[in-house]
Each structure stands twice: as C-alpha cells, then as structure tokens.
Amino acid sequence: MSTEGGQESFERVYKTVYPILIRVTFHITGDMAVAEDLCQEAFIRYYQREIPFPSVDQAKYWLIRVVKNLSFNHEKRKGREKRAHERVLKEPQREIDSGEVEVMKKETFEIVKGALYKLPHKLRTVLVLREYGGLNYKEIAGILKITEGNVKVRVFRAREQLSKLIDEEEVYVS
Amino acid sequence: MCPDQQLLSAYYDEELDPVWRRRIEEHLSGCASCSEKLGVYAGISGDLASAPVPDLAESQARSWQVIQAHMRHPVISLWRRRLSIPLPIVAAAAAAFVAVIGLGIFVHQPASESVEQSVADTSSFGLQTAPMNVRVSNLNDIIDYLNSQDLGDNVIIQLPKNISQMSTGQPQLLRASDSK
User: Fold this and answer.
1) Angle at A115 between CA A113 and CA A116, to 5 degrees
2) What is the pTM assigned to this prediction?
3) In A106, A136, B14, B128, which residue has its Cα 20 to 30 A from B180's Cα atom?
4) Within an 8 Å CB–CB cutoff, is residue B87 touching chain A?
5) Is residue A160 included in any domain, yes or no?
6) Residue A94 forms part of a structural domain
7) What is the mean pLDDT of each run of 10 residues along chain B (180 residues)?
8) How far apart are CA B36 and CA B23, in angstroms?
C-alpha cells in the first residue's frame, strides 16, 4: 500500500473504522492501553497487506478479526503470566474484613464490567460485537468464521451467564 | 408453552424472520415470565452501555501518530526482511563451503587409517581374535570351559544369533554367575 492512492484509502479506512475497532477492543480486553496497542498492530498489519479490500466494510471485518485474535493471544499470555506469578508468590488470599464490605460497594457499571471479563473469551467477543459493535448476527458470523446459528447460541449463553454473574455480584455487595 | 429462550434473545436482537417475530410478539402479550426475560436482556444492554469509555478521539489521534511513525520507519522482523546478496559474495560463500567440506574429508581419511593401524597393533600384542566354537548347554559348562583354558583376562563370548532370550533369562544368568 505504498502508492499515494493507497495512503488516501488507508486514511479513509482508519478514520471510519478506528472508533468502532477501539471501542470493541477496549471492551474485549478491558484495558485502554492494551486496546490501543492491539488496534495499532492491526492497522500496521492492514497497511502491510498487498491486496486491498473491495470495501471499507470488508476492511472493518478483517480488522475486527485481527484484533479479536490478538486479544485472545494477549489474554492467554496474560493468564500464563498471572498463573506463573501466583505459583512464585503462593500467597494465601486475605480474609475480607466485614468492615470493608461498605467500601466494596460498587457502581453498576463496575459490576457489569467485572462480570463481562469473567465470561469466556468467545462468549464475551460475540456479546461485545453485538452490543458495542452494533453488528448483526450475519456480520459477526462472517468475522468469527462461524455460523449464524452459532452466533445466536453464543449471544444467548453470554447473556445468561452475564445475568447470573451480575445477580451474584449484586447479592454479594448489598 | 413458552418458546426456546434462544429465540427470545434473537428476537431482542431483531434477528428473527417476520413469521417468528409475530409469534413471539403474540406470546409476549400474554406471558409475564418471557416479558420479564426480555426486560433482563434490555437491562444487560443498558448496563453495558452505562460503562464509561475513555476519550476515543484522543486515542485515535495518538494511534495515528504511532502508525505514521511505523509507516515512515517500518520495523521489519528478521524473518520477514528481504536480503539482497551480490552474486560474487554468493560464489565466494559457495567456494568456501566446498573447501571446508573437502578439508573435512581430507582430514577424516588419515584418522580411519590410524584406527586400522591400532587394530593391527593390538593384534601384534598377542590378542587372539580368531573365534573358537565351543558347544555348551548351560552356564556352568561355559564357566567350566573357561576355567580349563588359559585364555587371559579378556574373553569375548558371542552368543548364537538366533538365540531366543526370555524376559526372565538375564536375571537367572546373573544369579547363576553370582553364585559361582
């Protein structure tokens, strides 16, 4: 994509797709710095591609697929690091003082955010693409290379699990 | 009878065809439980939408700077980097490679001669290398035979090639030799 036209087209795709890409990535990873890194990596890969996409939408789907894969790899790596850290420290979990319960009361969005990151990556991804990406089942199926029926099942399961997790959290802090 | 809850979720996302949508709507008008479920899905959407998002415009400008910098000075990993090597250097490298291989073969040949020499030398020290065929039926016969011969310290016993050894054979041999 080294031509002037290529540069213009890249800028157009960047301006159009970046807002949705960063929003989706932020809600999948839960960390803005990580989301920015992954989005930058995705766009750099997009820029290095030799074959252009026929439309901005196709470019968007490709970029979302790249950040989805990057975020999954990031999460796996983070999980391994966390487990290794825990093995090294082997510190027992601190008992929660009843006096601290008041301090632990959370805002609704914090409860939802916490519950969202407890979902398995593949359920979280479809829900985030649906709720924050505004994508329909067909688009999500195309991005994740799964069937629309599978998207329907995953969205349903994600909602059910999320609802259960939010209920548990609200009972705990109230 | 209430519909499958997956259908309710798909209805909420407006993913059902008109026929199913109408059926669900008819059902919802008389079912408090499914209406409540639909309310839960709407509540989840509302909760998710309430989560604050950092300034995206700022993020977009920041990331553009990083990507532009990368485009001006791309960092290409070692494995993806293209190498252009002049032909004389390739020829010189090939010649050097052939020379090293040739030297290796040349150096290796005298070594094999010296091994043969050492074998010859050992035979000249009086080691008897010619095999002797002795028929024995058990371990005791072998030990008796060895005691009766003055064969020196080093004796090589070669077992028949077609011998079949059971898995228990070796410990029995060891026990028998230990008891002697």
Assistant:
1) 65
2) 0.63
3) B128
4) no
5) yes
6) no
7) 91 95 94 93 89 86 92 66 75 92 79 43 50 75 79 72 61 62
8) 17
